[in-house]
Amino acid sequence: MSDESNADNYYRLMSRIRVIFENGEPERVIEFDPAQAPFQHDGQPGSILDVLLGNGIWLEHACGGNCACTTCHVIVKRGFDTLGEASEQEEDLLDKAPGLTPSSRLGCQAVIDDPAAELVVVIPRYTINQAAERPER
Amino acid sequence: MPDNVVQRGARRVYQGVIEHVTAHNADTRSLLIRVPEVNEFHFVPGQFISVAIPIDERRETRAYSLALSPQDGQPLEICLNLIAEGVGSHYLFGLGPGAPLSFTGPFGLFTLEHPREYETVFVAEGTAIAPIRAMIRHALGTSGHPPLTLLYTAADQAHLLYRAEFETLASQHPNFRFEQRVSASGRLSALLDEIEARYVRADAGRERHFYVCGVGNDVLRVRDLLRAAGYARRAVEYERW
Ligand SMILES: Cc1cc2nc3c(=O)[nH]c(=O)nc-3n(C[C@H](O)[C@H](O)[C@H](O)COP(=O)(O)OP(=O)(O)OC[C@H]3O[C@@H](n4cnc5c(N)ncnc54)[C@H](O)[C@@H]3O)c2cc1C
Ligand code: FES
Question: ipTM of this predicted complex?
């Protein structure tokens, strides 16, 4: 293979995520090569959480990306089908969590499968916190 | 805004102080944590806190289940075992009474708030008894709870944590059975045959509720066994560390 076609492949294999913050923070666009995953150590390698944290974008992940909390909840506006299918464990958790949408995924579990994925992901303003953080009475 | 949601970036960080450290055995400890800034720390039995582990410049956290029930009040208890080369557990094992501990929470949907209508079976290995201990202490404190069974394994008696406590509770509550199993692996896989014999083959009833907690894929094996046998998806709850 010539150097030229290698370079060509390199560009074609970049994926892109546009991240929209519901709280009004300016949106961000990340380009990355899924083959380089993991980008850090929490969540599934190549997951939305992995890519975001690895690119300096904070997404909450209270259970360490272990599919046990839903604080990494994201809404996938575009590119839902380019993500790996949700496992039974992820479905079980989504099933129990209130307030999620049909295009919700857990950022720590949703792995970007397509090497040229184009995703638009919304990070919700509110994170569901099941029990507490109620003000002191 | 309803009071069960938190704005992104505004999660409250609690500053706890370790009040007491209890050694269960050579590699397992409980940390008793007082949170002076609140009278009551609200949570549901089974939930965990996300503890800050200050390593270098990184913002690391580790999840630890609350091992007491909300009715027990403060101090809160977390119970953990030392992992070879595990940065989180090594950091926490280095802390003694008086040490500060920052955390957020509570989190998690592996919970028992209101005891179920049907027999409830808790399945745990080693330290993964922590969230289940909170659930059992809570359930036993409610009137008219259904029969509760705890099936608990570890590699030796010293790793069957809170054994004396569960034995006492079983002697006080005829509706609570404590089944302890020392097994070579100390893992949930050692309980699979027994779970199948007792809850799949022994009768056709499928109205039990299960809570399973452990490390790794064994948790999913127990889940799959029970669901394949006809227990409803929502009747088999689990948390995999
Ligand atoms: C929802 C949730 C609740 C948890 N509650 C507890 C708790 O109450 N007590 C507790 O000790 N741990 C608990 N854990 C695990 C804990 O968060 C850490 O993963 C653990 O302490 C290891 O961290 P480390 O940095 O020392 O090691 P790491 O290097 O981060 O962990 C190495 C590996 O050890 C495995 N592991 C995790 N926990 C254990 C364990 N207890 N025994 C053996 N292997 C393990 C994991 O698969 C992990 O990949 C919980 C995890 C989750 C997701
Ligand atoms: S970080 Fe907890 S479920 Fe994703």
Answer: 0.91
